Amino acid sequence: MSDSDAPRFVDKRAAARMDGEDGDAPAPETEEAAPEEAPADDLREQLEAAQAAAERFEANWKRAAADLANYKRRVEQERSEQARLVSAATVINLLPIRDDFGRAVETLDSTLAGLNWVQGVLAIERKLDGLLESMGVSEVPAEGETFDPTRHEAVGRGPGPENVCLHVVQKGYALNDAVIRPAMVIVGEGGEAEPPGPAETESENEGA
Q1: DSSP 8-state class, residue 115
Q2: CB-based contacts of 135: which residues, under 8 Å, 6+ apart?
Q3: How far is CA 147 from the centre of its chain?
Q4: Residue 183 forms beta bridges with which residues?
Q5: Are strands 173-175 and 178-181 parallel, antiparallel or unpaired?
Q6: pLDDT (tens digit, 9 = 90+) per residue, 149-170?
Q7: Which of 12, 37, 45, 203 lies 20 to 30 Å from 115 when distance is taken between CA atoms?
Q8: Nearest Cα to 182, choosing from 145, 144, 140, 135?
């Protein structure tokens, strides 16, 4: 058998590759056109708009921060005022009890001073005074003081130094230096005080 009669084996893949090399090469992909650069005026306008927006955001933030600070301050003031009012109301309700204790002690007979129940009343009075003092309550000075309408309430007038508190009818009290109950006083209207009568002189001599 001659070589020409022998069967031929063809590599189709190689043949296809050769055909591709011999044929026209595919046209290269066209590059996309570069975008045109934005004009400088447009960039400047965008920058100005961004700066204006940033300034608005900053102003709004500052306003919100200031509103929050004012709100916190207002809440603290309201709480403080509410606490002050509650404390004042409590003190005002305790003052009549303090007055009753004062009158009870003033009218006690000196011969009863050593009795246990008298000592108990005096101890309660001291505790009440300590409680009021711890709450910031102080007595308003009155007797012998110049009459002050912001601290005193005149309930009568009598002979004595003009515009001077001669006698305290009811004690006044202040809470943290703010008067919550003025002292009721008798105010001098000028002239000399009347001398004590015979009955008063005899009682003083008996007491001596």
Answers
A1: S
A2: 87, 90, 91, 175
A3: 35
A4: 152
A5: antiparallel
A6: 999 999 999 998 999 999 999 9
A7: 203
A8: 140
